[in-house]
Design a protein that fits this description.
The protein has 9 helices and no strands. By secondary structure, it is mainly α. The protein is about 75% helix and about 0% strand. InterPro entries: BetI_C, Homeodomain-like_sf, HTH-type_TetR-like_transc_reg, HTH_TetR, Tet_transcr_reg_TetR-rel_C_sf.
């Protein structure tokens, strides 16, 4: 087998893996992680379950790939965030309900004991809270106008973002997720100049 053949096979394998991850996202969004089966994902991409296991040896391995892919889509630049950019992120999320639905389904299930995504979400939330505290500190300094520190406000900021997503998923006609988030930012007060 030539080098070109090896590289071509590797590219096809990566393309197939990406197709499987996209299908898994859809199935998880529809059924939740516990309700999703490898057979359903395999069927969606035209593979047998055995063919899917060639790319992902376990359902947990596929879940990890789904979570990593979602994180790649939401990767943020290394430059500091600002609260107005967070508002833009909320607007962007409103344009991709399937991704938000998958995240919400996995997050909800992950609070159960022994769920394979529990450690992932626990670590992710610690990272996100620290990131949000840094955003708030950059804009407001050591104290927000309401007197709270960035560290005390960060969990509230994250809770509002995720809570709005759940409400919006349940009733998108009644919940203006971007508007409600901008309203919350106004409650924080004006940043320090």
């Amino acid at each position: 087998m030539s080098y070109g053949d090896v590289m071509s096979a590797r590219v096809r394998s990566e393309e197939r893996r990406a197709e499987i991850v996209r299908a898994a996202l859809e199935v998880i969004a529809e059924r939740g992680y516990r309700g999703a089966s490898l057979a359903a994902v395999a069927e969606r991409v035209g593979l047998t379950q055995q063919g899917l296991l060639h790319h992902f040896p376990t359902k947990d391995a596929l879940l990890v790939a789904v979570l990593q892919e979602r994180d790649r889509w939401d990767a943020v630049p290394d430059s500091p965030w600002r609260t107005d950019l967070l508002a833009s992120l909320v607007e962007y999320n409103a344009m991709r309900p399937a991704i938000i639905q998958t995240f919400a389904a996995l997050l909800g299930e992950s609070v159960t004991e022994g769920h394979p995504a529990r450690a992932y979400f626990t670590e992710r939330y610690a990272r996100v809270r620290a990131s949000m505290a840094a955003v708030l500190r950059t804009e407001y300094g050591d104290r927000l106008p309401n007197g709270l520190t960035p560290e005390r406000t960060a969990p509230l900021l994250v809770a509002v973002m995720d809570g709005l997503q759940y409400q919006w998923l349940l009733d998108p006609e009644s919940v203006d997720m971007p508007g409600a988030f901008r309203d919350f930012l106004r409650l924080l007060g004006e940043p320090a100049e």
